[in-house]
Each structure stands twice: as structure tokens, then as C-alpha cells.
Write a structure and sequence with these properties.
- The protein starts with 5 loop residues before the first strand and ends with a helix.
- The protein is globular.
- By secondary structure, the protein is α/β, with parallel strands linked by helices.
- The chain has a single domain, classed as TIM Barrel (Alpha-Beta Barrel).
- It contains eleven helices and nine strands.
- The structure holds flavin-adenine dinucleotide (FAD).
- The site of flavin-adenine dinucleotide (FAD) has 24 residues, from α4 and α5.
């Protein structure tokens, strides 16, 4: 049965002409699913600040879809960080995915910049103060490498909601149970705002595997085995689509109110999964009512 759910797609800003074509093709392809918002990431250490801001502004202006600009506190003063938020607002972008960001200190440790925000809690409060932004934050079903314990991640997420966050999007994960266990702990800790599962359709297993290792996300043996068989049978794409659609269906059946797709600027699998979940593209809806 088709269930209604909130839908969002994440993209990264282009760094080349070829990358621009890929981004706009992905946005064009996925906007017909009437997402609740699209988001644009902020390169590590603020490296894509202007590109992120421009891409967010163009989507907001041209597609009539709400846009969330990501923002981190890394290597920037409070003033510099908030100036990006105000630049978003000037382009009609009122949603921000507010993050501490990955550290650039020794061993990747996060060290606040001189006159910078101490972390995500400070940033969330400042964004609510400066422009009453709609604030989305991150959440980690599999413990964040900086977390002292599993419960420290839940406590920190609760603190982010207490600081004013409106919703959280999780890091991607491979086992539905990992999300559900985390969500249940958050609810038990008194969190009532939405925690949206971040879903990564696997376009390329080699890359996804590498990315998961870098983010300390456990890789189940059954998944390795599944992709090994799919590769041998030349059915990797079919396996990926079926796997992602089944995961999303399970998440929705277990009460998830939304899905956030990490598209990596490739729209094909996300679109196929949306269709499999019964999300009708807008032009088909219009044809049906004509
Ligand atoms: P936080 O959630 O603030 O902290 C991470 C963990 O550290 C916490 O769970 C907690 O256990 C511990 N911790 C931190 N501060 C405290 C504290 N004061 N007290 C107690 N515990 C604390 N990175 C980018 O560079 N650009 C992006 O656009 C981007 N987008 C992302 C979007 C999503 C949905 C997610 C899940 C991640 C994204 N990231 C992005 C990655 C993110 O920057 C890294 O994971 C970074 O290491 C942590 O940033 P954060 O805001 O999630 O940190």
C-alpha cells in the first residue's frame, strides 16, 4: 500500500562544467517527485562556500522547491559562518542543515576556529537568533567516531533539539534495525521531533563500501555477499534498486515519516526507488487529473 511520506534529496555543488550538467540533470529528474525540499552540501572546511550558495539559490529560484543549504562551523569565525546563512536567506533559502563539520586539527579532531562556533549547538542557537531559520541537524544511528558512547550520541541529539533544531536527518546505514534501535532510544530520551532516515541508493558498491568505512558505518556480511553474487550475474543495478526500495518500504512500515536520499548527483536509482514506493511523478499526476 502507498503511504504518504516526506521526501528530500541531497546533492553536492558542482566543481566543473561537466559536474554542473550532472547536477542540473539530477535536479530536473527528481523535482517531478514533488520533494518537500532539496539540500546542497557544504564542502569540507567550507571549500565550496560560494558554489553551495549559488547552487542553492538557483534551485530555489527556478524549481519552486524549498531548498536547504548545508553549513558547517569549520575554520570560520562566527561572523563568516553567519554571513553564509544571511547569503542563503538573500537567495530565498530559509532552511539550513546546521553542522559542526569534520575537524581539520591533528588526527581529524575538531578544533573551533578563533572567534568561531564551538560546535553545532552554538550554531543552531545563532541561526535561530539571527534569522529564525528552519534548522535540520545530523544524527548517527551508528555511533559517530567522536561520540564517547551510543548514549552520548542520543544525548547530543537531544541537546540539538533543545537548542532549537526542527528535525534531524541520519547518516546512512545498511541495516533497518540500526535506524529503528536508534530512533527508539531517541524517543525514550524524550525527543519528539522528526528523525528522518538518510538513505543512500548504492550506485557503485566499491565506492559505497569505501565511503562507509571512512564514516565508520558497519558493513554487514550479507551485503558483501549480495553484491558479490550480483556482480557475477551482472545484476548489480537491479539488486541495488530492490534492496533500497525494500529498506525504504520497511522504514515507512515501521513509522518513519520521511526519507532523505543521498543522491550523489545521480538521480536514476533514487527515481526508481521513489516509483517503486508509489511516489507518482508530478506530470503523471497532472495527466491523471486532466
Ligand atoms: P555533531 O552532531 O555536533 O557532533 C558529532 C558527535 O560528536 C555527536 O553525536 C556527539 O557524540 C559528539 N559531540 C560533538 N559535540 C559535542 C558536545 N558539545 N557534547 C557532547 N558530545 C558532542 N559534512 C560536511 O563537511 N558538509 C556537509 O554538507 C555535511 N552534511 C551532512 C549531512 C548529514 C545529514 C550528516 C549526517 C552529516 C553531514 N556531514 C557534512 C558530515 C558531518 O560534518 C560530520 O559527520 C562531522 O564529523 C560531524 O558534524 P555534526 O554536525 O554531525 O556534529
Amino acid at each position: 500500500m502507498t503511504r504518504p511520506f516526506d521526501l528530500s534529496f541531497e546533492f553536492f555543488p558542482p566543481k566543473s562544467l561537466d559536474g554542473s550538467f550532472r547536477l542540473w540533470n539530477a535536479v530536473e529528474t527528481l523535482q517531478v517527485f514533488s520533494p518537500d525540499f532539496m539540500s546542497i552540501t557544504y564542502g569540507a572546511g567550507g571549500s565550496t562556500r560560494d558554489l553551495t550558495c549559488s547552487a542553492a539559490g538557483v534551485i530555489a529560484k527556478n524549481y519552486g522547491v524549498p531548498v536547504a543549504g548545508h553549513l558547517t562551523c569549520v575554520d570560520a569565525t562566527k561572523e563568516e559562518t553567519l554571513s553564509v546563512a544571511l547569503a542563503y536567506a538573500a537567495k530565498g533559502v530559509r532552511r539550513i542543515v546546521a553542522l559542526r563539520g569534520d575537524g581539520t586539527g591533528p588526527n581529524g579532531a575538531f578544533v573551533p576556529a578563533k572567534d568561531g562556533f564551538a560546535g553545532s549547538l552554538d550554531l543552531i542557537r545563532a541561526l535561530k537568533d539571527v534569522g529564525d531559520f528552519d534548522v535540520t541537524v545530523s544524527a548517527y544511528p551508528n555511533r559517530h567516531p567522536d561520540a564517547a558512547s551510543d548514549s552520548a550520541d542520543v544525548d547530543h541529539l537531544k541537546a540539538k533539539f533543545d537548542a532549537g533544531a526542527d528535525r534531524a536527518i541520519t547518516q546512512f546505514f545498511f541495516e533497518t534495525e540500526e535506524f529503528l534501535r536508534f530512533r527508539d532510544k531517541c524517543v525514550a530520551a524524550g525527543i519528539t521531533k522528526p528523525i528522518v532516515p538518510g538513505v543512500m541508493p548504492i550506485e557503485n558498491w566499491g565506492k559505497a563500501r569505501k565511503f562507509a568505512k571512512a564514516c565508520a558505518i558497519p558493513i554487514p556480511a550479507w551485503l558483501e555477499e549480495g553484491f558479490r553474487h550480483a556482480k557475477a550475474a551482472d545484476t548489480e543495478r537491479l539488486f541495488s534498486t530492490a534492496l533500497c526500495a525494500e529498506t525504504c518500504d520497511d522504514l515507512l512500515a515501521e513509522g518513519a515519516t520521511g526519507l532523505h536520499f543521498y543522491t550523489l548527483n545521480d538521480p536514476t536509482l533514487s527515481a526508481d526507488v521513489c516509483r517503486a514506493l508509489g511516489r507518482t511523478p508530478r506530470h503523471l499526476e497532472l495527466r491523471a487529473t486532466a
